[in-house]
Write a structure and sequence with these properties.
By secondary structure, the protein is an alpha/beta fold. It has one domain: Rossmann fold. 29% of the residues lie in helices and 29% in strands. It contains four helices and ten strands. The strands form three sheets. A six-stranded mixed beta sheet has the order 4-1-5-6-7-8, with helices on both faces. The chain is globular, with a radius of gyration of 15 Å. It starts with 6 loop residues before the first strand and ends with a strand.
């Protein structure tokens, strides 16, 4: 970690990162951080460290994966953490982290469309998370999607509409 980097971005995979596999014809979650690094570099953002691990579609994330994520965050000296996560189970991971970590600011974000297909939504959601985490003073767990940042239990995926919506 560099002295001037105060935000950790944990990349767990998800649709945000998916790329087209020319051999199988499928979208796969690659084991790299290229999409996130491209967004940060293009936006001239140098105050984040990016660490990738798990590298799964969120439907494949297990309790063991959530424990790995939790332990990594707990051991980390970072107070501000953004997790790039698949949208199908980001609420489950957020709920789990919220129960176990109370002394950090954590925001989960992702995308319904891979960065490799269209950069608009992944870039927008990551920038939303970055802006919010820099101004937030409360230790809590949030989700940042589609123009909203709310506590993890107040912003949920509407599977019929393909968008995250605020819950009252």
């Amino acid at each position: 970690m560099s002295k001037n980097k105060n935000i950790l971005i944990l990349n767990t995979g998800g649709t945000f990162n998916k790329t087209y596999n020319e051999i199988t014809g499928e979208l796969i979650v690659p084991c790299h951080n290229k999409a996130i690094n491209f967004i940060l570099k293009s936006s001239k953002i140098e105050y984040c460290d990016v660490v990738g691990f798990v590298f799964k579609d969120s439907l494949d994330i297990t309790k063991s994966d959530r424990i790995l994520i939790k332990n990594y965050i707990i051991k980390s000296h970072y107070e501000k953490i953004i997790i790039v996560h698949g949208t199908d189970t980001m609420d489950k991971t957020a709920k789990y982290l919220s129960k176990h970590i109370t002394n950090k600011r954590i925001i989960l974000t992702g995308s319904m469309v891979p960065h490799s297909i269209s950069s608009v939504e992944p870039t927008s959601n990551l920038m939303l998370a970055l802006g919010y985490i820099q101004s937030s003073k409360k230790f809590n767990t949030y989700i940042a999607m589609h123009g909203h940042v709310k506590r993890y239990n107040k912003l949920l995926k509407n599977r019929n509409r393909g968008v995250f919506e605020c819950q009252i």
